[in-house]
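Check out a protein:
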Amino acid sequence: MIPLVLGVRQTGGASVVHALCDGVGTFFEPLLSAFPDAASAEVSRAAALDPEAIQRDGSWRLHFHAFLIQLDDGSTILVDAGIGDVDAPANSWAPTPGRLPDNLVALGLTTADVDTVVLTHLHSDHVGWSVSGGQPGFPNARYVVPRADHDAVERLNPRIRDEILRPLAEAGQLDLCEGSVRLHRQVITMPTPGHTPGHTSVLLEHGDEAVVFSGDAVLNALQLVKPHLRIATTTTHWRPGPHACPSWNAYGRVAPGSPPRT
């Protein structure tokens, strides 16, 4: 299979953003079961924004994304680490193995070329390639992880504690963050808690504009059409109740991540 690599030149002068699809699947509930309060007109507007995600039969098609930021000074930041290989914590439900390493090769890169990995939160479909074969999957990278998620990982997913965080800490590559952290003169983290205790988004800034890498703060284009739309499900994998995303209009374009599941 040819890796799906979307090159997006966006803000920051010579900086380039690549959307890397690690896998594709269909959500385990129809779209309107997840968003029961969505009106038909809102669904139509969302489908116009993201027609592949909102299928004609009412299903919700998912792309599990990571985002590679190549900055104008040559440094490289990866936002999230996909679903991972066949042994990754997401293997019980996601379409593992993913193809993120192949996507990097298609760009002329290897995992060793990544300088920083930002994990927006500690759900299994966002951390997968962080560790492979018991070793850091990006051997030269600093891994930036929200401290609040680190402290809650026992509740979020003990496998992530044992199979992801522990190897990174033992390798000296784990860097816990709190609040907003400046990673580069153009890149800053922004706390967006709610989906998880420490959920963190990433901003790529250029003047008065920014690209927002929203992790799972924005899950579907419906939340761009109606930002405070309630998300609910009957499954135990998705915490019921209100789930509102911030108003991203102040920041520019949003790069959504993938669905909310541990």
About this structure: DSSP finds eight helices and 14 strands in the chain.
